[in-house]
Amino acid sequence: MSGRTLSTLYPAPYPRRDARHSAAGRGRGHTGAVGVRRWWDERALPRLTHRSCQGADVDRWRAPVCRAATGVVLDVGFGSGPNLEHYPSAVTRVLVAEPSDLAWELSGPRRTAFERPVERTTLDAADLSALADGSVDTVVTAWSLCTVPEVDRALAEALRVLRPGGSLRFVEHSLAPDAGAAGWQRRVQPVWGRVAGGCHVDRDLPATIGAAGFVVELEQARYIAPGPFRAWGWFVSGTARPR
Question: Can you tell me the distance from the alpha carbon of 155 to that of 176, in angstroms, rounded to the nearest whole number?
Answer without folding.
Answer: 21
